[in-house]
Amino acid sequence: MSSRTPGGLDPVTFEVLKNAFVTAVDLMSEQIMRTCYSFVIYARDFSSALCDAEGNTVMQGSDDIAVHVGTLHFQCKAVLEQFGDDIHPGDVFAVNDPYRGGTHFNDVSFIRPIFVGDEIIGYAQNKGHWADIGGSVPGSFDVNAGEHFGEGLRIPPLRVWSRGHRLDDVAQLLVSNTRSPYSAEGDLNAQAEATSVCEREVLRLVERYGRDTVVAAMAGVQDYVERLVRARLAELPTGTWETVDHLDADPGAGEGLIPVRIRMTIDGDGVHYDLNGSAPVVSTFLNSGYGTTFSALYAGTKTFFPEVPLNSGFYRVVRGDIGPEGTVVNAGWPYAVTGFCSGPYEKLMNGLFEMWSSVMPERAMACAFNLEYLLIGGRDARTADRPFFMWYDWMAGGWGARSSKDGPSATAPVFGPGLAVQPVEGQERLSPVLITEHRIVPDSGGPGRYRGGCGLEKGGTLTDCAGTVMSYCCDRSRSVTWGIEGGLPSVPHGVWLNRDSDEPRFLGATFSGVQVEPGDTFTRPSAGGGGLGDPLDRDPAAVVEDVIDGYVSLAGAERDYGVVVRAVDPELDRYEIDAEATGEARDQIRSARRGWLEADPADVARRYRDGELDTADLVRRYGVIVDWGTGELHPDTTAEYRELLRRRAVAHWT
């Protein structure tokens, strides 16, 4: 065994510096947490990284958002391409351009070069999600935008600090294009200052170990990750796997699922993904730019290698052909891309989960719930000056069931496991919105031998507001979170307005600019994760425990698992299994369930409208997709959805 590590350093120095780089980035994150103005950034919708002199990622932080990390090197390289040799000590650059490797316009990065003498040895970068970046609706999430011009301010690589001096005119240009310039300016200053913390830590390492040693370690940690991943891949089977996941629809093309196709090949040269065959761009903002598509490939793969650090060494092994511009996974300018996070991004990640579950069955995981954002913006009438407010919320939900255990409930999305659930007390203080419920939803976890994690339901009432609109960015109202290896789906996403009134409105899973008034109420569930394995193989004792915990209802236990549970004393959590009735119920389901998928969809939709069937009956038994508010049948979507159920569930039933 060699006594030298990648970079030619002795093992102790290499290990110390490798971890010191993590600390430098984490300190940058701690700084932004303590100085940011935006409640969204405070809830950890931000990420940080240290890059080398060429813009390659050296190290990410410990709790960064997955999608950010996979794009930070693209943005750093964009700054280098834009400014070349015109970069100086004390400069700080801003960029949010999705067409230059960024995510969406709300995610604004600040990048600071780190100089030793007159030489750049690296870059410190912090990316934070600004609650508003302009555009046609508060929060800058406009479902109706077909091009980026309605989505907000596009910032190409731009110098905001020059040789240590803030360019106030440039800074004011940026923040004045937001609905909350005071908060935006606070975040701008906080993010830029955070990069100086990383700079300070790197220079402290240089002072202690020398410039050459630190630079060698920056290269060495990337080589180390590459070597580690190649060694892990050498232990796995080679071959090619394929799958497809879907967006719900293209509003400009009628109903029907929108495919995101993935082919994965593992060979002696690494992992290669091919996304050719994915749908053309859609006429809404649920498209993805190239940076976020590559990020999904990195993050989805990394999920199955949790022990491996993530830097550009990983990217050398994981490569992709994302196809020509003009597709939903490679939109290109000027197509709208703000909703990529709820669109192709998590579809790609979950598709990778499905394929890697075949390669590494010991780490198998079904589909996780979809990232979603609910945005309410307008004037806060609680004070005389009626300032703009932004109620900007995302939900926790359920991840997919795993190879040997149930999926986690009420957790952050796979898009960003570091995201925090925003505290209700803070939301109510900052905005005229009163939270009325926030609870786990029984029966939301996809049934299976191992159950998907449960989702949540969150509702609220608008109080003293004026000129207020609501927008929602999600998906999976029709392409419902799915199970694998015989497991069943979760439940659809979507928002209800005034659900308990005489005029309830189901607004769906993507909408923008809906006018709302004081006294209006809203509620929406997040989905749970998909199930893994045949639900009829689940241990009845585990179903009873789920009933006790509130994860499964008595009716759901019988409908989804064929387990008949009798309540003896619910206050004392005393339930018992009717073994004979359970055997009969499971036999009945086993003999009937294939036939359910052949039932006339129009008749099933009618029975739903008449109240005879509920949502879970349609998505889990009959494979029928309707407008969940009106009950109108979506025939093309239903036909496609049934085929997916047959592949992921029916084909695995004995």
Automatic annotation (TrEMBL):
Transmembrane segments: none annotated. Keywords: Ligase. One of its GO terms (biological process) is glutathione metabolic process. Its EC number is 6.4.1.8. One of its GO terms (cellular component) is cytosol. Residues 10-535 form the Hydantoinase B/oxoprolinase domain. GO terms for molecular function: 5-oxoprolinase (ATP-hydrolyzing) activity; ligase activity. It comes from the Bacteria. This is Acetophenone carboxylase delta subunit. The gene is apc4_5.
